[in-house]
Amino acid sequence: MVPLALGRDDAVTVTEPPGAPARRAAKLTRNRDFLLLWTGSGLSALGARATSIGYTLLVYWSTGSATAASLVTFAALLPNLVAQLPAGALVDRWNRRTTMLVCTAGRILGVGSVGAVVLLDAVWLPHLMVVAFVEATLGICYTLAERAAVCAVVPRDQLGGALAANESRANAASILGQPTGTVLYSVARFAPFLFATVVHLMSLVTLLFVRRDLQAPRSSDGEGSGLIAQIREGVAFIWGKLYLRRALCLFAASNILFQILSLGLVVLVKDRDGTPATVGVLLAVNSVFGMAGAMTSNAFLRRWGIRRMMIGIHLAWAVLMPLLVVAPGLVAVSVLLALINYGAGIGNVAGVLYLLRTTPDELRGRAGSIFTLLSSGANSIGALLAGFLLDAVRIEVALAVVGATMVVIAAFAVLAFGTRTAAQAERAEADAERAAAEQVAAERADAERAAAERADAELAATPAGRDPRG
After folding, report:
1. Secondary structure class of 468 (helix, strand, coil)
2. Mean pLDDT confidence for 7-23
3. Distance CA 7, CA 14 (A)
4. CA distance linking residue 391 with residue 386, whole number of Å
5. Is residue 46 within 8 Å of 176, Cβ to Cβ?
6. What's the rounded Cα separation, in Å, for the pair 311 and 422?
7. Helix H or strand E encompassing 451
8. For residue range 196-222, what is the model confidence (pLDDT) as tens digits?
């Protein structure tokens, strides 16, 4: 739930070869293949969001057991721990189009089976857990393949705009998906799963109409490497970032708390005689504030940098989360959760753009899988703990535990990012980045001068370029 934020101190400059000519390309809005890929992936994300809340509502409203609901959520999040690394390496090997088609077809069958058993009133918890696990695993492979496929259909000089469009798509799916799932569930228990089946089918059709080859270029250097060696290479790339390492550890801990808050919101609404539609409204508000945080993240990064931003976000959470215990009603709870999600959203765009701009194409699947594993893999553990905690104690006690734990995590954030050593490391990495950028600029200028000299020499060698006086 909590995205990873990265700043200028961890940046790596990826440039075109010196002297490479810039070329004009059609706008993204006229790029047929990109639009089809963007639309299909957006539909897929929308369906996944609708079923994520659909599973929770179906189990909890049917059984009244937070533990049962958390087991399905745990199954859906477990692939973040066990499937990310092999999926990243395999996606770098497999054909992107085939991977996306197979994954989408598998999701259609899985979600469709849930809708069918709900219609037949034959819901079985182990079946839901298996489908949730398989659907999430296929979703991981699909996302990693789609991320690489975007780079195959969009010119390099338009990649930034394409990534921004994809981020907007993800935010829109988050804002619309879960409220849509809750509203559909209020109409009929099978409706969220029927909706997801239909939109996955539409996603499959759009992918069939993409003309361009979606296979990402492969490096010949790694063709003979084994799966473990390729995974190790991706790990080395991600783990080579100082502030990324520290941020991942802190966010992994806070992600556990966010899972407790997520299920706790459902429990809180039900305990106060709310409805599934109320849950949907509160989730929509949280998503809107998360999107607002993402839209303003670059301003915070420019002003604070990663070190101060990490400290500020965790201190803000350490203040806001304990206040949930004394919040007088659902409106106050909604305001506090919205502010918490605004802080989480601040780092979202920065993290995604950092990863895709700095990762070589042949490493993109592996780097993306490791990034997700380390930043979000703790969600599965948090989902499992959430059910047991909320069934064992009252919601107010659970929220108090969350608040106290967040205070401890914030203290670690201050120790990790507030020391003089951390400040010196930040300045040193920023200086190294500026030096690297200056070197690249100098090499490009030298290449442009050499090209201009060659052009002048070629012109002088032609009859029209010789001096007529002889």
Report:
1. coil
2. 37
3. 16
4. 8
5. yes
6. 12
7. helix 420-461
8. 999 999 999 998 988 887 765 555 555
**Residue (of 174, 173, 172, 191) closest to 182 by Cα position:** 191
Distances (CA, A) of 23 to 16, 55, 157, 287, 334: 12, 48, 8, 38, 48
* pLDDT of 260 strictly over 80: yes
How far, in Å, CA of 81 to CA of 74, rounded?
Answer: 11
* CA distance readout (Å), 201 to 109, 159, 189, 213: 10, 27, 20, 21
Q: Quick one: tokens of 282?
A: 């509160």
CA separation for the pair 225, 345 (Å, rounded): 37
What are the residue ranges of helices labelled H in 209-296? 227-239, 242-271, 276-295
Which tokens go with 365?
């699947």
Whether the Cβ atoms of residue 305 and residue 8 lie closer than 8 Å to each other:
yes
Query: Rounded to whole angstroms, how far apart are CA atoms 155 and 260?
Result: 42
Cα separations in angstroms, 250 against 169, 332, 359, 373, 377? 27, 27, 23, 14, 13
pLDDT bin (cut points 50, 70, 90) of residue 377 is low
Q: Give the pLDDT confidence score for residue 26 in this predicted structure.
A: 55
Whether residue 295 contacts residue 167, with contact meaning beta carbons closer than 8 Å, is answered with no
Residue owning tokens 């296979």: 215
For residue 361, what pLDDT is reported? 67
Select from 20, 11, 21 the least CA-distant residue to 437.
11
Q: What pLDDT sits at residue 415?
A: 87
Distance of alpha carbon 240 from alpha carbon 10, whole angstroms:
10
Q: What is the mean pLDDT of the chain?
A: 78
d(CA 76, CA 132): 5
Spatial contact of 260 and 390, defined as CB atoms under 8 Å apart: yes
Helix axes 32-63, 96-119, angle to 10 degrees: 30
Region 14-30: what's the mean pLDDT? 48
Question: With b meaning 16 or more CB within 10 Å and e meaning fewer, what string describes 138-149?
Answer: bbbbbbbbbbbb
Q: Is the pLDDT of residue 298 over 80?
A: no
Contact 171, 49 (CB under 8 A): no
pLDDT at residue 113 is higher than 80: yes
With a CB cutoff of 8 Å and minimum separation 6, the contacts of 43 are: 199, 200, 202, 203, 206
How many helices (H) and strands (E) the chain has is answered by: 18, 0
Q: What angle do CA 95, 99, 100 make, to 5 degrees?
A: 120
